[in-house]
Structures are given as C-alpha cells and as structure tokens.
Automatic annotation (TrEMBL):
This protein's record includes keyword Membrane: yes
Coiled coil regions in record: none
Pfam family, one: OMP_b-brl_3
UniProt-recorded name of the protein: Outer membrane protein beta-barrel family protein
Intracellular or extracellular location(s): Cell outer membrane
Native organism taxonomy: Bacteria, Pseudomonadati, Bacteroidota, Flavobacteriia, Flavobacteriales
Keywords: Cell outer membrane, Membrane
InterPro entries: Beta-barrel_TonB_sf, CarboxyPept-like_regulatory, OMP_b-brl_3
Domain Outer membrane protein beta-barrel: 355-751
Keyword Membrane tagged: yes
GO cellular component, as recorded: cell outer membrane
Gene3D superfamilies reported for this sequence: Carboxypeptidase-like, regulatory domain, TonB-dependent receptor, beta-barrel domain
Amino acid sequence: MPTIIWSQTIKGHIENENQEPISESGIEINENKSIFYSDKEGNFNIEGISKFPVSITIKKTDYQDYEITLEEDEFLNIILKKDTVKSIESVTIKANKPLLKRKIDRLEFNIDKTPLQNLNAWDILKNTPNILVKNEELSVRGNSQIIVTINDKKTLMTQEQLKQLLENTDGNNVSSVEVITNPPAKYEAQGGAVINIKMKQNVLSGYKGRISTRYTQATYSKGLIGTSQSYNTDKWQLTGNYNFVTGDYVRYNFDVVTFDKDKTRWESDMVRKTHAHEQHVYNFSGQYTVDSLSTIQFGFDGYNAPNNNGHYNVPTNIYNTENNQLQSYYLTSNKKRQYDNSFNSYLVYDKKFGNHNLTWTNNSSTKRFKENQDVETLLNFDGQPESNNRFANNSIQDISLYATQLDYRFSNDKFTLESGLKYSFVNNKNDLDFFDGTSGTLIPDLTKSNLFNYKENIFAGYISSEYKWKKWEMKAGLRSETTLIKTNSDNPVVENKTTRTGLFPTFYLMYNLKEDQQLGFSYGKRIDRPNYDFLNPSKSYYNLYSYFQGDAYLKSTIIHNLSLTYTVKDWNFEACYSYIKDPSMEISIQNPQTFETVYNYTNIDHGQNLGVNFSKSISIKPYWKLNLFGMGEFQENYFMGTDKILYKNDVFFYNANVSTQITLDKAKTWDLNVSYVYNSKTIQGSFDISSSQRTNIIVNKKMFDKKLEAGLVFNDIFRTDKNIISTRYADQNQYFKDYRDTQYVMINLKYNFGNQKVKDAKAGRKTDEQNRL
C-alpha cells in the first residue's frame, strides 16, 4: 500500500478570557473532518497537514465556536469566549438523559451522565432495551447467538468469561450501548445480532489504576481480586487488566424420564458442585499513534483454568407408573477434572487519506481443553443381582485459528462507501480415549474411542453504501462468504467435504418525520454456524444411561430478519419478523429400547417469530430515572419427531423489564438500582420452557473523594430465576428442573488511584471464528 508522508504541523494554545487554559477543546480540520484535542494545559500539536491554506474550527462546550483559515504554518494563541445560550442548552440535554436514539441500523441507549454509570457494564446491559438476560446468558429478542463488541472490537470469551469482564468494567467508562438487531454488511454474517458497548473517549495524559475485590455468597462462596492499569501519552495508550477468581459453582437439576410402554418413571437428582479455585482472566491492549493519520493497535487476552474438578453423586430411582412404587435404583459416581486455556492476539494498522480510510486487521487464537472423568455405577434392578459398572474417558480438544481482513471506507457529509476482504482458517482436533472398567481394571476400548478433525476456510467480501438526502437516509450492502469444510472422524467413520457460497444482503431506509421522530425499515440475511464442539459425532458419556453426541453434518442456520421501527422522543416501537431455516440446538431424546437419554446437538426443520416491542426511558426527577421495556412475540418451531412426523411447537412469549436508578444524596455518592424482569413460557424445538422472573437490588457508595467505591448486590432475591423444561409427544415424555444458583449476595470494593480521566486503550477487533470457540 502506498504511504503518504506528511511534514507540516499546526501548534497552538487555547485559553479563556481570564487567561485560563481550556483542556479537551475539539480542533476539527474542516477539509477532512479529522478531530484533535487540546491537552490539560490547553496546548495542541497537529501533525499531518499536507498543504495550506487549511481551515480549522475549535469547539468547546459553553464557549463560542472559533474558526480560522491558515495560509502557512504558524503558532496560534486562541481565546474562546463564553456562549450563554449553548451553556443553557447543554444543561437541558443532560437533564433528559438517558436517551434512546434510533439510528438507521441500530438503537443507541445513551447512559452518559446518568445514575446508570454507577453500575458495572454487566448491570448496564441488563437495563438496556432489547437485551434479555436469562440464566446469566445474554440474548437479543430471544436470540442468544449474538456477538458482543467493545468499541466495535469483538471480545473472544465464553458467556461466563464475558460476564466476569463486564462485571469488572466501571460504568463510568461506558458512554452508550448499541443494539444492532440487523447488522449491516460490514459485520460478519455470523450471529443473529450485535451488542456494541461504546467506551468514553478522552485525551488526558497520565497514569491511572484500580485495585478491586469481590465476595459472592450463593450456595457456596466465590471471590475475586483484580487490578487494572492504564498509561497514556501523546503517542502511546496502554491498558492491562488481570483478575484472579476462586470459588465453588453449583447447578441443580432434577430430571424425570417416563417410558410409557415399560410403565416406568426414572428420576435423577443431580447436584453438580464444581471446584474452580484457580481461574485467571487477563487482557492487554496497546495503541501507538504513528502520526495524526496512522495508528497501530495490538494486544492479547486469555483465560486459564488449570484445575476445575468435581465429584458428583447422582441417585436415580425407577418407579412403576401404575402404583407409583419404587421398583429399582442405581447410584452414579462421576469424578471429573477439566483444564481450560485460551489465548488470543491481534494486530491492527489504520491509515487515513483525507476522506478515505484503510484498516488491516490480523487475529490469531489457540484453545486447549482437556477433560478426564471416571464414572462408576452401583446397579440395583428388580429381579437382578446387585452389580457395578465402571468406565472412564479422557478427551483433548485443540483449536487454532487465524484471520486477516482489509477494510476500506470513504465518507463525506452525505455519502459513505465501505468495502472489505477477509480470509480465515480454523483447525479443530478432538481426541477421545474411552476405557472400560467392567473387569475392575480400566482397559482401552477402541470401539468407543474417537479421533476427530475439522478444518474450515472462509473467504469473504462485502460492499456497503449509505446516502442521506433531506429527511431520508438509505443504506444497502451485500456480503459474500465462501466456506470450505473438511471433516474426518474414525469412529463413527465420517468423511465430509463441502463448499458453500452464501450471499447476505442488507437494506435500511429511514425517514425523519421531525427532529425527534423517525420511521424506519430494515431487512437482513444472517448465518449462524455451529460451535466446533457440536460437530464431533462421537459419543461422550455422562453416565451409563446418557451421553452427548454431535453431528458432523450439522447445517448452518440461515436467518431472515424484517423490522419496522418508529421512534418519537424517548419512545421506541418495533415490529419484527424472523424466518429461521435449519435452526440448530441441543435436544434430548429417550430411547425406549435401551432406556438411554441421548443429548444430541442437531438441526430442526425451521422456525419463525413475529413480534412487537417498545422501550421508554423516563426522567421522573433529575436524580430519579425509570426504564421500561416490554415485548410480545409469537414463536413457532417445526421439528421432525422420533416417529418421523413433522410436529409444530408454538407459544406466545412476552417479556417485561422495569428498572429504576435513584441518586440518594446531593453529593452523588449514594446510588440505588432496583430492577424486575419477567419472562413468560417459551420454546426450544420440541421443548417447552417455563416462565421465570428475577428481582435485583444494587446499592453503591463512593467515599474519600470517590476514590473508594463499595457496592452491595442482591441478585434474584426470591429465587425465581429457574426453569422447568419439558416435552411430550409420540414416545417422548420427560421434563427437567434447572436452577443455576442465581440467588446470591455480592460485596464489591474498588480503589481508584492516578488520573481517573485517562482513557483505556481500545480492545482489538475479534473474528466470527473466535466467537465460535
């Protein structure tokens, strides 16, 4: 790529009429719309001026704009005058926040200068319209296949790791949350929606740090201690975070499977307590400003849990359904040990050429997961002598991936053009060794062992344009992705080579009826590729009568989204429709011949959703905010039953989310947040999922000039965030009670030091392939 070398600079100093320096004044180069800022002493130094004359505009809240045209390189001494009108308008805007702003392709929830900033980023997401949190899992309009980005940079983490990161991200650093239910062509076609967390931007130089600790008491206790460090100069922005987490995790399940022909009911009471006494979560982000038009971003993040282990004792009672008498029973003892390590790195080069911009992004990732389990079963069946059964398995998964992408952007006041190319490669190896212990000694069993290898190449390109005229805005794009897949499994024997090319169009149209009133329409086609774990066709046994099995021929899900939006002031209304072809999900199927329950990740035929939602943010008082969100959606899933008949499962799902934030004192050191969420009955393939609800209370206190923060959280106060999952058709009759230990009390302590206005370095953009790890 050609590189243009700039040699001229503009230097200056900005002060008010009292000769006091004005920091963070915006200096805009009118020719290319580039924006720079003065430092804390009011000085600025702008490099990269190609030629004179050049026109610049200096802007600062509460001051009159200052515009000047320079004929040559010279030092500027600028005095800004107070603007009374703008000062009044600024105060009015702050009083109306938080604001819901409808853009052509997304909904922006602006929380800047509101009590919501006293929460952490995870709790902010819980209060964001269109985002649902159920069983500690994020979803958008009921779709959990989403991508989370921070400043448009993807985070490669599991849901639990992402939750830990966001819980330790200060809300004061969050400016807004963008919910993109129909992502444009620039975004990867993977996933149903995008949540983008926008962090505050400022340019003050210096160092800041934080030490934090957290104690959580649920059924068992958990603890966290961490630190965050940032250093910023004119050229460098460096940010690092590290958290050490320790504790015990538990999940409660009560599973009931009824075999109608055999007239028996099998009840299993599972309490899965996992010891995770050593977890390391870390990330580092760096940015180097080569000149005013070129930047280099680099960094890494990772997660390491060297020894998660548990010993689960699961009793199963078998009853006769005619007289409800205990007929037989067995006890399963499962000793499990896991090792989990992932590491991701990135390098980004960004170059501006006036209205043109080029970005080259590189990502690489590795993941290694090991699991060893030893399962012993004591059997006491009616009419049979007492017996023992034992087996063990060791599994190793290694994933490596690399992706590179080149993006181009041109933009002016009315027209924007974006295009790009991407290539990615993934290699996923799984090695499962099975051991039979029937004889009393563990002996390798090759009939149940497996070696699985999966390779994937993706070539992608996109083009997108946006045009504004009068009250209209239009945006359209097209993305092409060609996927080459090679799968090899030795037991069962599977060899699969496929090449697929998909086109993913997007279209948006918005009409501005008034300044605060918009009407919009959008359409988009998306793809949801399965996680690599779900493509392995080997059997992974939980106990003697249940196992998990993936599908090497699993199809990618295709999603068509239509949306009609209407926004007026802080009210936002949306009507939406989705058609989902070959949705993939985990379902369980009981086998009456073997009495086994098979947990299978597979495709169902299709699904469709039709719904409406609304959101409203209300400022009751300057210190009291109320957020309302409600949605209703008719859901349909069509699946092929065990009897080869196509079934339909449907439900009307509705959700309500009400939260309020109150600042309790004039000094703004006490804050209270109360929220209530209700989810009605929903469906997943052949399963019905019962309703659930959650009530939370959060209290925050800032002390010692707001350097020390203390928080108290009561989550799921009434222990109502749990589900019953059931199915009843043909020869299938089962239900599962699931509770994930969501009722807890948490105490947070944070101590801030250094210059707390220093911005954090932006996290590097992550790839769709990394998101599927």
